[in-house]
Write a structure and sequence with these properties.
about 425 residues; mainly alpha; two-stranded antiparallel sheet; 8 strands; about 5% strand
Length: about 425
């Protein structure tokens, strides 16, 4: 592998690993804040115990996740110096705001929340946890604004071989940025909801603190159903945005080779025995791709043959990642509905099969999130900034494969250690359960 391929692999691994921590942080702090809100409103000690139990798991995930995010930024200078020089005037602004505003807001109030029990009033403490939730999600906003600019560059001019910002408002109010932001954070909310439901199911199956975990599971089910429906709506908006601004990616998502009016969408694939090349024959849903792209069943959708071969993204990986992400999304809606239905009937503890499914479903939203990022980033190739700069032109000058292999091995080893620690601590304290009343 050359330096470009190795650098792409390194960034993919570190970014993908970082995203394991981020979604649980984004969603679990909101659920914790809701639980503390219920405690302040009702004075019920059960909600206080819930706040402390789930808050502890949030803190474990947050503390380790912060470390994984810091190392990613070093790669812009080490591996992607040409990219940094080309877009630094634009890309640096949202990252700087994230660090100086959102992260400081989050970390300051996190300290108040951790050490403020019985030292400040209940309402002040509640305000602190909601500020942590706001700061966490604002951090995601600024990072996703930066990423959205790579997908759909706006508010810039090219000057002396560099992209320079001329309209900060266009950057932060880009439709692509806000669709991407809400789509990404809602996927994090789904991760947290299924984490809470899965851990709760584990304890209910073992008849441990049943009332505590029935209440927690219901919180997760409500949050999960709302988040999955919101995610589906945003997924529709995201598809429209991609079709408008990244037609080659949309064509790869649908494996559409010929430009068509009323283009079909292929939901399933079966072996094509009649094809001598042993390719796949896809089962189409007529006109669905046109509807997804433009909400018009007869709209024209550009096919991959409209783009030269060197400007087409990897089709197979993009196509199947998109499909499996959608399939998992449907599963999440069904499971959330069932969990909420039986929670409302107060019979959830008798639904052993459903509880086991919820327990073993904890990894599925993580997988769906990773698939979503594969669609977003692999589908953008060969561009690092869509339509402006190719990934092959963004790597640092004089970077050798040996340099990248050395840092890649170091990152993989370090991240593996962090992953083992995170899983060990989350499993340990999840199985331990809440402190006794």
């Amino acid at each position: 592998m050359d330096a470009i391929a190795l650098s792409r692999l390194q960034f993919a691994l570190t970014a993908g690993f970082h995203w394991i921590f981020v979604p649980l942080t984004l969603g679990l702090i909101i659920l914790t804040a809701f639980m503390e809100t219920m405690y302040v409103r009702t004075g019920n000690q059960l909600y206080l115990r819930m706040t402390k139990f789930w808050g502890k798991l949030f803190l474990i995930n947050f503390a380790i996740g912060v470390v994984t995010g810091i190392t990613m930024e070093f790669q812009f200078g080490m591996n992607w110096a040409e990219y940094s020089k080309y877009v630094g005037d634009i890309f640096g602004a949202p990252l700087a705001i994230e660090a100086t505003v959102a992260f400081f807001l989050e970390s300051t109030f996190l300290g108040i929340w951790i050490f403020g029990w019985k030292k400040i009033s209940k309402k002040a403490h509640l305000f602190a946890v909601w500020m942590v939730a706001l700061g966490s999600n604002l951090s995601a906003l600024w990072i996703l604004i930066a990423n959205a600019w790579m997908q759909h560059p706006v508010g810039y001019v090219l000057n002396n071989g560099r992209a320079e910002m001329v309209d900060f408002g266009a950057l932060i109010f880009s439709s692509s940025a806000w669709v991407k932001f809400f789509h990404s954070i809602s996927s994090g909310w789904v991760v947290a909801a299924f984490f809470v439901m899965g851990v709760s199911a584990y304890h209910i199956l073992r008849k441990n603190e049943v009332e505590f975990f029935k209440k927690s599971l219901k919180f997760g089910a409500v949050f999960g159903l709302a988040a999955t429906i919101f995610l589906a709506v945003l997924g529709d908006s995201s598809g429209i945005d991609v079709a408008k601004h990244q037609p080659s990616k949309f064509a790869a998502m649908e494996s559409l080779w010929e430009t068509q009016n009323g283009a079909p969408s292929y939901l399933f694939a079966v072996p094509d025995s009649s094809n001598e090349k042993n390719s796949l024959e896809f089962i189409p849903v007529p006109k669905m791709a046109s509807f997804l792209a433009f909400h018009d069943v007869n709209a024209e959708v550009k096919g991959l043959k409209e783009f030269s071969p060197d400007l087409r993204p990897p089709v197979g990986l993009t196509f199947f990642s998109f499909r499996f992400m959608i399939y998992l999304g449907v599963i999440f809606i069904v499971l959330s509905c069932m969990a909420l239905y039986y929670s409302n009937k107060d019979t959830i503890e008798n639904k052993t099969l459903l509880l086991k499914i919820l327990l073993y479903s904890i990894p599925l939203p993580y997988i769906a999130g990773q698939l979503g990022w594969i669609v977003a980033e692999v589908g953008r190739q060969p561009w690092i900034v869509y339509g402006l700069m190719k990934t092959s032109d963004a790597v640092s000058v004089n970077l050798t494969p040996g340099h990248v292999i050395l840092s890649l091995v170091g990152f993989v080893g370090f991240y593996t250690l962090l992953g083992v620690i995170d899983i060990f601590l989350l499993v340990k304290y999840s199985k331990k359960g809440p402190e006794r009343a």
